[in-house]
Amino acid sequence: MHEVGIADVSGYVPAYRLDDYLTRETASSPDVSVPGPDEDAFTLMWESLTGLPRVEAEGPVLLRVPDSDIETRALVAHARSNGVLGEPAAVIPLAPDAGAPDLLALAARLAQPGLGLLVDHRRPAGAGAPATASAAAAVRFGPPRVARVAAVAARHTLTFDRWRTGPAPDQQDARFVEEALVAVEGDALLADLLKAAGRTTADLAGVVVTCGTRLRGARWAKRWEVPSVWQAGGGTGGPGASAAHALLTALDRLRAAGPDGAVAVLDLGWGGGGAVLTAGTDAAEKPAEPAASAARGTKAYGLAAWHGRATEAPGPWTSPAELWREMPALLGPTGYRCSDCGGIGFPRAGVCELCGSFEVADRPLRRTGVVATHSVDHLFDSSDPVQMVVVDLDGGGRFFGQAVRDVPRRLAVGDRVRLVLRRLHTASGLPHYFWKVDLDG
Amino acid sequence: MGEDVVAIGAASTKFGEFFDRGYADLVRDVVRAVTADAGITLADVDAAWLGTAFAYTYSDEGNAGTSLAEPIGMHGRPVTRVAAYCASGLDAIRQAVAALRAHTCDVALVVGAEKMRDVGPRGSLVMQHVNRGHPVLSKGRTAPGIFGLVAERYRAVYGDPRPAMTAVAMKNHAYGELNPRAHFRRAVSAEQVEAAPPLSGPIGLLDACPTTDGAAALVLVRESDSHGRRAAAISGIAMSNDLGYFTANTSSRSDLLGFESTRSAAASAYEQAGVTRPFDEIDVVELHDCFTITEVVNYEDLGLCGKGEGRDLVLSGATGPGGALPVNTSGGLKACGHPIGATGVRMVVDVCDQVWGRAGVRQVPGARTGLAHALGGPGSLACVAVVTDAGPARAAA
Ligand SMILES: [Zn+2]
How many other CB atoms sit within 10 Å of the CB of residue A180? Predict the structure, then answer.
């Protein structure tokens, strides 16, 4: 294995949290992040990609997007259409139960630095199953500005521990998992990693663990003689279930630890995978920034939103030819600029609506602007009223569409807003994504 | 411009929800009424225009002139269907006026008809708005939503439009209560209007016009062929296309405080009719109050008051009974009802009733000049007509 670095990282954690009732019903942690009704695996992935510097050409894209109803190639095509993803050298889908260490291990063995995408999109499963946190992480491998992958390791052990994806029909005693398997396999994996990295536990700022049960962190910190053990994403769910959270948490703790910091990541189940991350070159120069966008105002995810999603009316019949013709520009978002009057408009058009000139050329539009007007619509077929918003975009062009479903408050004329990609509906078997309007900052 | 074209017959069915009358029944009823009113027979008619906006709401009826020719047995002559959203009826009149001026016909029949109530719940115009259209550009757009955007912009720029919207609803329902042809013949209180279920922004259920069944018709001739009959001249009529359909709300040209289509159509119609001070020169107005906020901004777009003064105009009582310029004495779309293709024709029928002095208890004393205005689509287009008494009194003058 040659040394591989993480050059850039960007994460996204949805703003919804379970309300008290659903937290109780699903025996979930109240801080578990849940996607909004109009967020899906693709929109989470898109949000994480928006924080990375743009490039024209990507290396190999290592992609793990479980529980998505849109194919891997469709995910890539949508991200390409709106410009958050450069043209990939190759797309390498990872298994649904791959964890953060699996991504790092594969990246470390690629000849060309790649892009890693880990997406966890999960809704409250209902029927008493605990909720598992949703998040998305995007990392671009290359010069070790953010972190170095100092070691990776894996064990494959028959433990019959039911650390599987989804609830087992006859759940085993969680104490068996924690006391026996984390101890045996976790100890061994951590020892392998430290040896490979040429480090000792004294060098670690802490260990990030994902596994099939909720851990008592202080107990394991003491056993492993490290300052902290963190469990990303609220525990539970099986191997790889909180991969994005684990990676984001590890990178956040690493930055907090400073220039000499090191953090281990363990993803336990049927043995497990692990990695040691050490501080990147930025650690000495830049103040620590969180890898995931700071949580803004959260919104409770109640039964109404849950039920509303489940019964969402199907969208209109849609011509696939029309999607093929129009969607690349709409997802861009691409408007036009008139070379006669200098006017800028949206959507893309063959004529300038300001002066009537046909001398128009496509032009990418800014995704920020100011609310010109709005209207909260109670007639539109939706579980709760949708706010429709007209936005005068910075640099020209006017946009009209829905506000995001998890906006912390209703938008008002004059608000600074940004456009974000969200799922509108599914029609003719196709997911329809379009821009929605969110408060900026 | 050519010679003035005049209406010599005007008629409308009752507006409402008619499960006992189909589209063809409404068309036949109104044509029999209008030919009787004009004192002619169908054999005298040599061309006809049919305004129907959404033929597919009810059935396939209204999708061509055949839907008018068939129920009245009008054979061997041209019958043309005109579609321009909510301005279909007024634009059908405009086509007939142009043909008469060009001497391509001598006696023109114009019918506006729409059958909207006899449809399944997913087939209503409201649900078509929600479930059809562009897969993403119009997703979430509803009819009240389009005008809710105007109401919220109006609030941000000029102040709360709510009191004025309530005044429009009360005024138009008060007129509708007195109109035997109106869909809703009952007054509403401010409390009822403001407690109604919300639709979009400040627009509530009692700020919205209904969907309606109905038909209206006119018989038009050149003034020289009116032979001293009671007549009303179409002294100005104009149409203007402005905003796109799916892209209406992304147009940077819109100030979101009204509709440029109305402004430019009005300017053209006023110029034809020689109107320079509309508030002073016009006696009665039928305008497009699809939602109460629309009436407020229409005042401004039609030049009946200055920008931002629409609220004060209705609150002053000037556009109500006994006011200086009564507006929507029929009850408007709000209370008279809105069978889309019929509406523009119905407006001119109501203006004819006013200038002919047969508007009953809603009569505006001495009304001689009236205005009709229809706004189509999401503000995409508008049609404006100036109608002036051209009876024997004018001929003698
Ligand atoms: Zn131009």
Answer: 13
Query: Cβ of B142 under 8 Å from any chain A Cβ?
Result: yes
Taking only the tens of pLDDT, chain B with its 397 residues reads: 567 999 999 999 999 999 999 999 999 999 999 999 999 999 999 999 999 999 877 778 899 999 999 999 999 999 999 999 999 999 999 999 999 999 999 999 999 999 999 887 667 776 776 667 888 898 888 899 999 999 999 999 999 999 999 999 999 999 999 999 999 999 999 999 999 999 999 999 999 999 999 999 999 999 999 988 999 999 999 999 999 999 999 999 999 999 999 999 999 999 999 999 999 999 999 999 999 999 999 999 999 999 999 999 999 999 999 999 999 999 999 999 999 999 999 999 999 999 999 999 999 999 999 999 999 999 999 999 999 998 765 544 4
User: Which of B126, B139, B207 to substitute to test the interface with A, most A CBs within 10 Å?
Assistant: B139
Kindly list the structural domains of chain A, giving each domain's residue range(s) and its CATH number in brackets, ordered by start.
4-288 (3.40.47.10), 320-439 (no CATH)
For the domain with range B5-120+209-396, which CATH number is right: 3.40.47.10, 3.30.360.10, 2.70.150.10, 2.60.120.10? 3.40.47.10
Cβ separation A377–B200 shorter than 8 A: yes
Q: Which of residues 315-344 of A touch B (CB under 8 A)?
A: 315-316, 318, 322-323, 327, 330, 343-344
| Contact yes or no for B145 and A379 at CB 8 A | yes
- In our burial notation (b when 16+ CB lie closer than 10 A, e otherwise), range A32-68 reads bbbbbbbbbbbbbbbbbbbbbeeeeebbbbbbbbbeb
Our CA-based measurement puts residue B117 at a distance from the nearest CA of chain A, in whole angstroms, of: 18
From CA A422, how far away is CA A436, in angstroms rounded?
Answer: 6
Does B249 sit within 8 Å of A347, measured CB to CB?
no
Is the Cβ–Cβ distance between A385 and A378 less than 8 Å?
yes
The DSSP symbol for B121 reads T
d(CA A44, CA A274): 25
> Between chains, do B156 and A413 touch, taking CB under 8 Å as contact?
yes
Of A315, A375, A434, the CB nearest to B145: A375
Q: Is A103:A115 a contact under the CB 8 Å cutoff?
A: no
Instruction: Report yes or no for ipTM above 0.85.
Output: yes
Closest CB to A377 among B136, B142, B151: B142
Beta bridge partners of B221: B6, B107
Contact B79, B49 (CB under 8 A): yes
A347 in contact with B at a CB cutoff of 8 Å?
Answer: yes
* C-alpha B308 to ligand 1 mean position (Å): 29
List, by residue number, the catalytic residues of B: 86, 338
Question: Residue A115: what residue type?
Answer: L
- Of A419, A427, A428, A381, residue with least CA distance to A400: A419
Chain B residues near residue A343 by CB distance under 8 angstroms = 252
CA distances (Å), origin B353, targets B111, B288, B295, B356, B364: 17, 18, 21, 5, 10
Number of other residues whose CB lies within 10 A of the CB of residue A22: 22
Q: Do A380 and B137 touch (CB under 8 A)?
A: no
Which pTM value belongs to this model? Answer: 0.90
Alpha-carbon distance of A175 to A181, in angstroms, equals 9
Contact of A351 with chain B, judged by CB distance below 8 Å, is answered with no
- Which pair of tokens denotes residue A342? 């200098």
What are the Cα distances from residue B66, in Å, to B22, B49, B63, B377? 15, 10, 8, 24
**What is the distance between the alpha carbons of residues B117 and A388, in angstroms, rounded to a whole number?**
28
Could you give the CA distance from residue A368 to residue A437 in angstroms, rounded to a whole number?
9
- CB of B249 within 8 Å of a chain A CB? The answer is yes
DSSP element (H, E) containing A44: helix A41-49
The pair of three-digit structure tokens given for residue B139, joined into one six-digit string: 């997703």
